[in-house]
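Dear H.,

Thanks for agreeing to be a second pair of eyes. The structure we're designing against is below in token form, covering all 164 positions.
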């Protein structure tokens, strides 16, 4: 077992990759598609009421393409990982900038390092996705259920997967 499998479990990372690939393909099939999702060891939940037929076609294609080696589909530019990395880098940059004893240097350093952190957020966030939060190796993974669910006034779609 690798270190990153302990922090982000293999099944969570696989489902995160499938979620990203599915969203990419759904957006290609329907340019008006929008939504967010969260992955778990059992699959992922889409926080939007989506067309289940479109979702099934996108899931099938995403799974097929990832299993065929199209690993780049596992990386998504709008992933929350990018946001978390960006916030972390901006915060770190601001804290480092504010460490100076001179007021003008503090303000300028905080501003410059915050901008630098924000600029680095997307490429570094995609690096973190690639190496820690997604796993495009979906050999033996299959979708077992797609179900529309309701909680109070909110509709969401649950996608369940297994690895055989």
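And this is the sequence the design step returned. I haven't edited it by hand at all.
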């Amino acid at each position: 077992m690798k270190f990153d499998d302990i922090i982000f479990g293999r099944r969570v990372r696989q489902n995160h990759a499938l979620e990203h690939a599915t969203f990419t393909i759904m957006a290609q099939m329907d340019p008006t598609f929008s939504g967010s999702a969260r992955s778990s060891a059992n699959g992922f939940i889409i926080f939007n009421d989506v067309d289940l037929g479109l979702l099934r076609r996108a899931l099938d294609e995403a799974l097929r393409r990832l299993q065929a080696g199209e690993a780049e589909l596992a990386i998504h530019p709008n992933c929350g990982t990018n946001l978390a990395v960006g916030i972390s880098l901006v915060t770190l940059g601001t804290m480092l900038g504010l460490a100076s004893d001179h007021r003008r240097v503090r303000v300028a350093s905080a501003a410059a390092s915050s901008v630098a952190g924000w600029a680095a957020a997307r490429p570094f966030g995609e690096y973190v996705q690639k190496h820690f939060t997604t796993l495009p190796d979906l050999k033996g993974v299959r979708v077992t259920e797609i179900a529309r669910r309701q909680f109070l006034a909110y509709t969401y779609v649950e996608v369940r997967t297994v690895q055989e």
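Two observations from my side: The first helix runs from residue 3 to 7. Helices lie at 3-7, 10-29, 52-67, 80-97, 103-133.

Warmly,
E.
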